[in-house]
Here is the input.
Amino acid sequence: MSQVTRRELSPGVWLRAVHTEKFKSAYLSFTLLTPLNRKTAGLNALIPYVLRRGSVGHPDMESLSAALDELYGGAIEAAVRKKGETQCIGFAASFLDDAYTLDGEKILESAASLMGELLLFPYTENGGFSPAYTEGEKANLIDRIRSQVNDKRSYANQRLTQEMCRYEAFGTDRFGDEESVAAVTPEALWEQYQKLLREAGVEIYYCGSARADRVEAAVRIALAALPESQKRQEPSCEVRVTAGFSPNVVEESMDVTQGKLVLGFRTGGQTCWETEFSALSMCNAIFGGTTLSKLFMNVREKLSLCYYASSVLEPRKGIMLVSSGIEFDQYQTAKTEILMQLEAIRCGEIEDWEMEGARRTLIGAYRAMLDDQSRQEEFWLGQAVAELSEGPEELASRLEKVTLEQVKHSARKLELDTIYFLKGKEG
Amino acid sequence: MEKVEFGKVGERMYREQLENGLNVFVFPKPGFQKGYAFFATNYGGMDMRFCLNGEWQDTPAGVAHYLEHKMFDTQEGNALQELAANGASPNAFTSSAITGYYFESTEKFEENLRILLSFVSVPWFTQESVDKEQGIIGQEIGMIEDSPDWKVFMNLMAALYESHPIRVSVAGSVESISHITAETLYACHKAFYDPANMVLCVAGSVEPEEICAIAREILPKQAGPIAEKSYGPAEPPHVAQALIETEMEVSLPLFQVGFKGESAPKGEAVLRQQLLGELALEALLGNSSPLYARLYREGLINQNFSYGYESDPGCAFLCAGGESKDPQRVKEAILEEAGRIVREGISEALWKRLKKGVYGNKVRGLNSFENLCVGQAKAFFAGTDFLRFAELFASVSREEAQELIASWVVPERTALSIVRPTGGGAA
Here is the structure.
């Protein structure tokens, strides 16, 4: 069994360590938590990518890659994530566990130290970021932002979020926008980097065979140069409880063969901080969260209206997105059908197998999370941002108690806020 | 069951061939919550022409994939639903060479395994249910065809190969699937879904003998005839077409460059060539190679650059691709670097480092039950065992990798596929 510990290493700097011997690898992440906002999102997003280009000890990609090869092909990735209205930037790494090295080498300490070096001792020119690295990564980040359009399914979800949360921090993409990234200078980037090191919350995560004390020692050495600070920010998130008077409808056309329809709902204040959130999780699973859901079974399978139809929750923000891929001329039919399925839940038209299937699927997913290091990391980061301490087992046990009445009640609080439809050029 | 130890990587495999010809492989995984089962047939998208009981048959493109969709139908309803109701996450995929059905579950593993074995071995469809699937698969094909990543890869196949069926899309086209009837599906099931043409791989906290007992209980008692396949005339060593270009709605040109090789003879040679191919790619253009650093620095590739060794019966090739403002120059740079490696050789230090890196990566990959089970199924169909790589690793030499580069990475064996932005935008 695994053992989870959480320690505050210094004010606002937290370590969560999961001890388990079942994996071949050790997972380690260093994350800075900062409020998401339009002005700084692009700047913040750029930082881990520029840092990943080189450090004092490993000034270019070749020497960094060589160092990673020596650590048995360890992977350190720049990570830019959005959890509620907190932007999470840093590094996530996976290394071979010490048990499997060919000559008994210990990897954790070297790996932590390389990550600390990347975060705190960047390669510099004239006391700031290298202009070449900055320009190179700006271009890459802009490409990354532009290429979001390539995957139409996630692009449509992203466009809906932008439109729905136009006046909230949540409407900002995790990478910021093209214009603000293009405007970044090495000087502005350096200034923001220094500010984050002083002001951002710091979340460190480890999962692997080492005991918490050994992890703490390795991390303390790796991050010894992190400034001591009393003013590290705590995350927050604005929750809009209700939708507007009538849904806002946004239509766009592109050169595609399949249309994308996304519906955005406000959850009526149901968020991860409320105990009733388990009921909303069940409601979402029954509606469109699984292959057993009403959307999958009826809209996709029975009516063949679309290739996919599913729903997801943003637990901190209190919104739910329903997304589907449809023929252009099925817009009205698909929309009506999706809303009818929700209406059925509101009226309590839920069969026993739907209720229990959803419950078993959600509980199974929490249990399976314990078998996956990166999913656990993602989960614990989310909990850290929400300042919650419940683990997967506790959340699973809450689901056991959810009743049909609660699900019905939860569904009644959902309000349709925005509709986004991506159609073809000729349509 | 026979027990095989792979001590270096901390794995143990139980194997047995049942009376009906089915090969069963079990990987015990103590400490894990979930169990994973993978049931696969040695039959995929490229097996369109085959001979059963002395009679040659030609089937439409997309039939293996279509069959995969329809296998979930059962006399009682739908197996997806049955598995999901037990909290399992089931799914399936069809590749060029194999079709696999799987589920993961943390509860009722044995009951779920019975459901899996039963629905895959008992076909149940009517002309009506087959006709209805046309819409769903048609939508799926529409979605695939909108994917620039798919397009650039399929075009590369068409450029590398003259007639090998790897050129044909696994899902087929809207036109080709319109010829599929219930009769076609029954014929293909009969030809390829015999236990003797299939494998069952299981990983988890399970009792190996129990897995065999369940397979004996559910599956047919005796082996039936297995169809003979044909991939058409032998492929010449050179590519069919050096360059293939098309336009789509993408932000930056996407490209895939491929180097056509020979497929290895069945058996351990397949695994050996795979290791060599992967190491050769690392030395030539991998993340820690000199060429990669240069292309990245010059802005000719970005973090989306990826590469791999691919093989299926009758074909093997190296490929690399991503986004680039100038794919032609990337291709030329790779060919030049290959020339340099052939002249100067791979340095001993680089080789040692790369081997360490690739080894560690492969061992880390064993965290994934899916990787382990799918890997073993494919390796078994190719005549070997997946985990043998750990032993083979020590014996693959630098000289062999250089020879592979010298014979494969040459202009007449190189094809380049490019998807450019619509209307020649963004150079």
About this structure: Chain A touches chain B through 69 residues (CB under 8 Å). Residues 248-424 of chain A form a domain with the Cytochrome Bc1 Complex; Chain A, domain 1 fold (CATH 3.30.830.10). Chain A has 15 helices and 13 strands.
